[in-house]
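User: Run a structure prediction on this.
Assistant: Running it now.
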Amino acid sequence: MAPNKSNKNNNKNKNNNKDNNTISKKIFNKLSGYDKEGKGVKKKKITDKERYSIKNFVILYKQNFWNLIVLNLIFMLLILPAFGLLFNFLGIFHTRVATPSNILFAPVYGMHLCYPTPATANLVGIFGAQGTNLIGNPITSALYCVALIVFFTFGLANAGMTYVLRAYTRSDHTFMWYDFFRTIKKNFIGAMILGIADLLVIILLAFSTYYYYTASPDITYTVMFIITFAMSVFYFMTRFYLYILLITFKLSPKKLIKNAVILSILGIKRNFMAVLGIAAFSLIIVGVFMFWPQMGMILPFFFILSNGGFMACFAAYPNVKKYMIDPYYEDKPHTDEKLVIEEEPIFIDRG
């Protein structure tokens, strides 16, 4: 019986302690007003206008600043073969041959050989100034071949980077390295084909614009320069959507290009702001290069591509969401299956 009495006493003591604690809490709550019913903390629903505003862009840019640097380095890693073309352009591995720089040297020298006089000797000295010509060799040929690999990696790098930038734009959590290469794996063929076509168009537009810009001052060439420059700017804005559509939806090449062109027109305001931002950022890099060449050559490896891509993605994704994603969820608000739309645009959400 003794143990039962002690157990009862312990239970009584516990109950008394609980009652005392309860009374103490009630007294504290009454005095502090803690138990009063109130509105509580309300979660403010963020609209798309606020989520994709310039203010939120600055906030997201600060949050992901260092991640953008790492992302830029990953992108540069995949387009590393392009440096073969850069090395050849700079003439680093070319064979250097000293040759006369004046085209009159050959006839003057021939005249001097036939009729050597002090006058012809002086002319040879004048027109025989030596210059340096860069001659190709097996190394430069190999570098050109290596540079061609970038046609196959350019689209892959853009697809992987766009996925990460889209996550930053939507404030989604992402594992950069894993998601970058997972996206490449999921979209390998499509990204590679799109990258080849994309790079070819960029090269053609850049060459055409440069050609008409440096051509003789003629009204025809001036008009052609304006046309090619306008086409380059428009295609630059269209590129904002190409890789977002590729990684987000399942579209045929024709529909992919068609939707990208339509969205670039519908979202012209945001697109133009992004173009201005990218241009301003590029001018800063050029300014640094002019005053500090060593730093100006290093900065593109860390900033230019991912920062410009983030501006483009932040401008483009709200338009994609507004015109392609939201209408689907309005029609099927409770669906859990992958997005499949039978009419234009046909797409499957890939996350």
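The longest helix spans residues 2-32.
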